[in-house]
Amino acid sequence: MKRLSSVFTSALPIVVVLALFLAVACGPAATPTPMAVPTWTPEPTWTPVPTPTPTPVPPATPTPTETPRPTPTPTLKPGETPLPTPTPTATPVAIPTPTPTPTATPRPTPTATPTPVPVRPTGTVTIAVTTVFSKSGIPSDCPACALLSNTSVQDTVLLSKRAEDGGLAIVPNLAESWEVSKDLSYTDFKLRKGTQFHKGLGELTAEDIAFTFNGANPNVTPGAQHDTGGDLMPVLKRVDVIDKYTVRFNWVAYAAHYHLQWTSDFFEGIGIFSKRAWDEKGEQWMRENPIGTGPFELEEWTQHKGVFTKAIPNHWRQTPFVGKVRYLEIPEASMRRAILEAGEAQISMVDLKDWPALLKAGFKKAPEEGGTEDFGLVPGGNYWETKHPTTGEALRRTIDTSIPWVGDPNDPASMERAKKVRWALALTIDREAINQSMLQGLGRVSMLGSIGDTDPIFKANKDRWNVPYDPTKARQLLKEAGYPTGFTAGFYAQVGIQAEIADAIAAIWLTELNVKMTMDRQPYASWRPKRINRTVNQISFHSMWSAFPATWPGEWLISAVSAPTGFNSGMELPKATETLKAKQATIDPKELERLTVAFQNYIYEWMLYPGVVELPTAALYNPKAILEWKMRPASGGALLLVKTPETIRLAP
Asked: pTM score, two decimals?
């Protein structure tokens, strides 16, 4: 993982989208159906969708009374490659000749229809990024698999796209069509035939889809380290092969946004690995040679250096316009800006504080910004759950109450003490000053990291969930908690603007509270295992599921449900598990809203996820060097949402 970065341009309430999926769930399997995702309606009242009567039926046998799916207007058919549009030729017209003439009337010379010129990948695109993480080509052991789909080395089951109204839609890709069972227990995907893996490893089949998702999913493969594997645990039971080109996704509890979030490239897209590579080449070869079926093939992936790819000529989906793409790892923000300004890179992940000057100089934001990234502080070490939410097995966690913000649920006094410490720290964050001085006023203040401040539910409760800047009150709370002279503790933040904001917060705490934070700057790839192993005992500067509508069941991030190896943010809260299960058991919009408000009230009361700021996210590019870039919608994933490189056209 990551984390969930960015908010949908059009948020998606589960119950509204569910009606759409039920309407098309059992249509004819042969018709690929782009499923438009409706936009969020911020009115406080929604119309509930009736709960469907569970009646499982084989997905390939439509009920006679069902309405067939409408035939979509495809934007790109499988096998097509975008080509230059031929110039229309006017119909030849014969010129009349006077009647008294011994000469034959000359016939018009026919004009031949021009033959489209195939795309020939040429040129190199250079992209400056903060990190390329660590390499692995095994789905069960790939902490940065989203990098493979964002670089278009791997393809996803479906693709995301913008609908005509600016909202979101999903369209066929590796799967030509899909059907949801009437009882919502599974989705069957019918795969496109003839899709080829790189390096001559043959055709992609249903076995490869099952191999990838089951390998990534800790429900099936205990110990899986895939960056999105922990996300799958509360969602997906397993994937089964029905036949060579049909694969079934068996859901834990279905929600209508699952296809967009888990089977498309929209959010940390899960690209498909080759089972044949595993069977014939072995684990070590596969680990060192990540492959896929995308428009680009991986040439090199070296941590602290970069990722280097080359175009696949005549690719079935789209032949890239550029021949090579270089993603250079450059941790220093000043260097990423310098390389863009010098023309040594066409695209760069630059800090928000550099945006105004660069935009004024003519650089542009990537076609898809990916919304905002909502940052908050996770008080790590509050592992309060004692039993696994699904297995009932005892959880062995260390609760170290010597850490000022960690409380023991079996000791009310320690819980109250830790709560006062968390509130003291939250009250000593000057959010607006950070936004103005460090983000040039381009961001927004954030009160709770577990819900976006633009979410309709937050807007309706913003007065209730306000966290003011009040160092005086904070000092009083610390004194009551037994820390009148402050304390020393750990603070983790990644590089770039995250680290700079964390340093600013630590400086305020030191000045106002005499709280000394030991800053941890190790690379995320080496720090991440603490989240997997539930050994985080620091405060971490982190972004969470506030990227998505608050009614979505995102509470798994601070629940024990994805244990033992799924991602966790540094806390395991029984309230999070309770809310997650309740959300998965209902499609009633009013109940989803009630559950969300109750959970956010809990987070606010105990101050378990204080927000800091919300940042717009996008890479910047040079429009003089890049004439066109048709980027697909993005939300989360590696490389700051830099994706769809096959659509980039360079200037001559």
From this structure: 0.71
